[in-house]
Amino acid sequence: MIFSFTLLLSSCKKKIIEVIPVIEYEDISLSEQGDVKSFSFPSSSIGYAAANSLYKTTDGGQSWTKLNFSGVVKSIEFIDDNIGFCTAGGYLYKTINGGQTWVINVSADYVAKTQSGQIVVAKETTFLGNIKVSNNNGSTFSTAQTLSLNGRLSGLRVFENTAYILDDKGYSDDVIRGVNLADSNKTVRLNAKATAEENPNDLYFAGKSGALVGGRGLISNSSSSGNPYYLSVFDRSYYGHTYSYYGIDGYDGLMVAVGYHSIASNIDIKNKEHWNEVFDKDRNGFEQTFFRIRFVDKSTFYVSGNNGLIWKAKI
Predict the structure, then answer these.
(1) CA–CA dist 175, 177 (Å, integer)
(2) Tens digits of residue pLDDT in 203-236
(3) pTM for the model
């Protein structure tokens, strides 16, 4: 599977060349029905995914086995093939034997990890998101910071040792809050500049640049704010459609957003738009709804969606 561009020639009198971003993918979906909103692939062969139950693959997604775990899983994060975490029912569960057994660690709604291997969790209390961090693979946790919420906690993303929380009413004061894990006294804020209908669903932010996605087709790129209270301000940069985007991730400058019947990328094709719709190898759109995306390297990513969908894709 390789990255490809499809060239379309239109108009006999004046040939206009359009370059269309295309993905090719290996379908490694779960056979059971259920939306896949969280997954973790610690290696090319080992993977974990949450749909109507928790599942594991040991052959790169060719087959999946249901694990002995009860509860609705919100998020999954594995350190290696055997040591990992998931959140369900307001608690963080840990396994050290590849999901055969699980034990409760701490109260948590979402889990993520830093590039340096720290485990970060977020727990919702009344209009607060409590951030805790572990430096010893989840054996113990210390409180990093408590951040205010405008609604219910809806997500946790960690980039470059900074943890950000998302809520379902971010438009209330238009701010995404975070904490510097190296200095828990230092909080950061991102100005989303989103409306009530566009409330952000996910965020990618690295090197003081990135993008966020949300309802009504929201894709906004970051820009330097010059304001000491905000790390960055986001400006809407795409008007391709009004369908919701649910996930975004990136690698080395390339970003991909996924959502309702849509995948979009910031591949520069010298268009007036900063973002462009992505199509399959046959130049078709998508009937599926996509929820989550995570890059493996500069061209490879996993994406999950409705009805058990999991793809390993290249762009």
Answers:
(1) 6
(2) 999 887 899 999 999 999 998 766 777 889 999 9
(3) 0.91
